[in-house]
């Protein structure tokens, strides 16, 4: 994945929800999408931000504010 590619609005939304500690299923329910779609978005986010785990996404969201995620 391209570490400089911007996150989509949906990806930014998911970053915020990961930052809140929601599971894949909870995020899917909140956004009315399937768990597999959430997992796909999370994989894309990990690649774009150069992270390896959801925990890194959550930390990033908390450092930067859930609604205003900045690119690394």
In short:
This protein has 72 residues and is mainly α. Helix content is 62%, strand content 0%.
Question: Could you describe the 3D structure shown?
Answer:
The chain is globular. Helix 2 (24-31) crosses helix 3. The protein is mostly helical and 72 residues long. It contains four helices and no strands. The longest helix is centred in the middle third of the chain and has 15 residues, at 35-49. The protein has one domain (9-64): Winged helix-like DNA-binding domain superfamily/Winged helix DNA-binding domain (Arc Repressor Mutant, subunit A, Orthogonal Bundle).
Largest sheet geometry: none
CATH class: Mainly Alpha
Structural class computed from helices and strand pairing: mainly alpha
Low-confidence segments, ≥5 residues, pLDDT <50?
68-72
Features:
disordered C terminus; globular; 72 residues; Arc Repressor Mutant, subunit A; mainly alpha
What's the arrangement of secondary structure elements?
Elements: H1 9-19, H2 24-31, H3 35-49, H4 54-64
Helix pairs in contact: 1-3, 1-4, 2-3
